[in-house]
Structures are given as C-alpha cells and as structure tokens.
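Page 42, continued from yesterday. The earlier attempt failed because a stray header line got pasted into the input along with the sequence. Redoing it now with the clean sequence only.
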Amino acid sequence: MITLAQTNLSVHPLCLGAIAFKTNLYVYAISRTIITSLDVYFAHSGKFLDKADNYLSVRKAMRSGE
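This time it went through. Structure tokens are written below.
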C-alpha cells in the first residue's frame, strides 16, 4: 500500500482503470466479468479505481490547442 502525501489515505499501488466498466455495465455477460474483476481486486486490498471518463475530451482539447 502507498500512503498519499499529506493525507492518511492508503491506496493499492496498482490503479484499476474502470471506464470500460461504465460503458458495458448493462450487458449481463460482461457485467459478471466486471463483478468478478472487482471482487478479485478488492480481495487483494485494491482501493484505487480510476473511473474518470473525460480523458478523450481532454485529449481533443490538447490537439486543438485549448
């Protein structure tokens, strides 16, 4: 575990990217895989999920010079 600077928060050293979970959550077969993935991650002390969905818009803004 890693303690975040100037906080008492400890997070798993591996961040689990979860954007694909959001887009596929309502498809039953995939949602079972998502639940299993999260169960395994949490069972191994995972506490660090990246669920941001704005990376594409930031990338587009950077390309256009914004």
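Notes: The longest strand covers residues 2-3.
Reminder to self: strip header lines before submitting.
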